[in-house]
Design a protein that fits this description.
It is elongated and about 35 Å long. A two-stranded antiparallel sheet has the order 1-2. The chain has one helix at about 30-45, and strands at about 20, 25-30. The chain has one domain. It is of the alpha+beta class. It starts with 17 loop residues before the first strand and ends with a helix. It is built from one helix and two strands, in the order ββα.
Length: about 45
């Protein structure tokens, strides 16, 4: 099975992954910092 990685930085995910809803899809990130970065990038892309 393929290892899951962070949607923002490609860091390998473990049991502390955070699920974030972006553009109607749920993705997993490794930390709160990546969740914020991903949310900001999505908001900027929508503008």
């Amino acid at each position: 099975m393929a290892e899951k990685t962070c949607a923002a930085c490609d860091y390998p995910l473990d049991g502390t992954a955070i699920s974030v809803k972006i553009g109607g899809r749920t993705v997993e990130v490794c930390c709160e910092e990546c969740a914020v970065k991903l949310g900001e990038a999505h908001a900027q892309a929508q503008a």
